[in-house]
Design brief:
Layout: H1 16-23, H2 27-35, H3 42-55, E1 73-78, H4 87-98, E2 103-108, H5 113-124, E3 130-134, H6 140-148, E4 153-158, E5 166-170, H7 172-185, E6 191-196, H8 202-217, E7 224-228, H9 234-247, E8 253-256, H10 259-272, E9 281-283, E10 300-303, H11 305-320, E11 327-329, E12 332-335
Parallel strand pairs: 1-2, 1-3, 3-4, 4-5, 5-11, 6-7, 6-8, 8-9
Antiparallel strand pairs: 10-12
Helix pairs in contact: 1-2, 1-3, 4-11, 5-6, 7-8, 9-10
Length: about 350
Amino acid sequence: MTVDLSEGAGRTVPTLASIAERVGVSVNTVSRALRAPNTVRIELRRRINAAMEELNYVPNRLAGGLSGTRSDIVGVVVTSLYYSEFANIIDSLQMALLEHDLQVMLANTRYNADQELRLVRSILSWRPAAVAIIGVDHPPKVVELLKAAGIPIVEMWDTGGDVIDTAVGFDHASVGAAQANHLIAQGYRRFAFVGSVRENDKRAQKRLSGLEAAAAEASLPDVVKHTAQRGGNPELGERLATELLQSHPEIDAIACNSDAVAFGVLRALRKLGRRVPEDIGVIAFGDNEAASCVTPSLTTVRPDRERIGKMTAEAIVSRINDVTPYTTLVEWELIARESTSRTLPPSPF
């Protein structure tokens, strides 16, 4: 399959000329405001900047001879590189794109909305062939910029919401519901949700919503939530679990937003003398390489990261070649291990 990197894809992309027309100045003046802003009056620079915002204009960093073409870059925007959460996706995506002579430009937003906007602007200024970005929930201005870019946009990892163009991933609310239903089947009834849930981590929020909905449908008590808006790690999990059980000793199952948090939860339960899985079940998300090695081994959900990366690359190439936008659902698997299995012998602490 050939990859056509020509500008436009049939959509109107704002230019220096359209900015100049909006402001009522020459193209040279707009160009000067971008290249040497100190040579343009402050009031005029403000009008030019306002026009660029209104039209979603992004400066072109490519050399003049290439200004009418796309680069061979694919911008890849992730929300975290913590505990290599998206490493397999990036690796699989990059390997597949290289077969089509496309290169990855990687950006990490760290779940920061302002940083996401700055990074998306910067990537678009290099006139990428496409952009792949984690999630379907973005700041409104990011959505505007991506829609106005006139290039394929593939949202990865999540399909539970409005899609800009094309999406490859899964429904996180269904993951939360599956976690709840597994716990219910194992005889647990009083749930808590523990971990890192930052304002812009919509996927964790969706898994929590799915957990709550399934618990409510089973007429169970409300899910107790004890979370923090910071990166998830074992230390956070240990602290949150200790605090949780001090105020809610009745809890008999803990769902964690990540395996890294769950490792700390298991450590806290061991220190508190709570038996897992007999007294408390623990379930998580991610299937970290250590999940099967800890004692007790951790029940968790395994997303197919490698397939998401590969399918995202296929979607990018397809959209570059004018295939109609589409959504691909990628399967995930709940891996039942010792931490929720009351039928297995007690695990020693």
